[in-house]
Amino acid sequence: MAGYARGAVLLARSDPAAALPELRAARQEWQRLSSPYELARCRVLIGRALRELADEQSATTEFAAARQVFHDLGAVPAEQEAAHLLTPAAPGGLTAREVEVLRLVAAGRSNPEIASRLVLSEKTVARHLSNIFTKLDVSSRTAAAAFAYENRLV
């Protein structure tokens, strides 16, 4: 449980790269203990971390596996959450956090302003912007902002 909690906290702090090893170790432990519900909960967090790291295919695999376990266990609310996560809600495969950053970019905010507003480090904001640029295949804040307006994200 401690590894799961550490991973959840790191993920909440927008540090999916550090969260992933903690969550993977927790997943192995839940598997060893034959605890399917906890294992599936852990897989949901792993999927969230992978999505934050722009590995949508692996994230989808984790969400689907968790959804199946929740279904088999009759854990309807958890199954619905996993099912919801299987469909990226934002265009361009952006995560919810990336959409938040993109909205602030489109509003003309600087990286330090975005960091302060979202309670993130400037380095994390820069990483999110890099991921956004890659996913949207753009090379400037202006082009990213145009995408946000074209896709009604602002």
TrEMBL record:
<dbReference type="InterPro" id="IPR036388">
    <property type="entry name" value="WH-like_DNA-bd_sf"/>
</dbReference>
<protein>
    <submittedName>
        <fullName>Response regulator transcription factor</fullName>
    </submittedName>
</protein>
<dbReference type="InterPro" id="IPR016032">
    <property type="entry name" value="Sig_transdc_resp-reg_C-effctor"/>
</dbReference>
<keyword id="KW-0804">Transcription</keyword>
<dbReference type="Pfam" id="PF00196">
    <property type="entry name" value="GerE"/>
</dbReference>
<feature type="domain" description="HTH luxR-type">
    <location>
        <begin position="87"/>
        <end position="152"/>
    </location>
</feature>
<dbReference type="InterPro" id="IPR000792">
    <property type="entry name" value="Tscrpt_reg_LuxR_C"/>
</dbReference>
<keyword id="KW-0238">DNA-binding</keyword>
<keyword id="KW-0805">Transcription regulation</keyword>
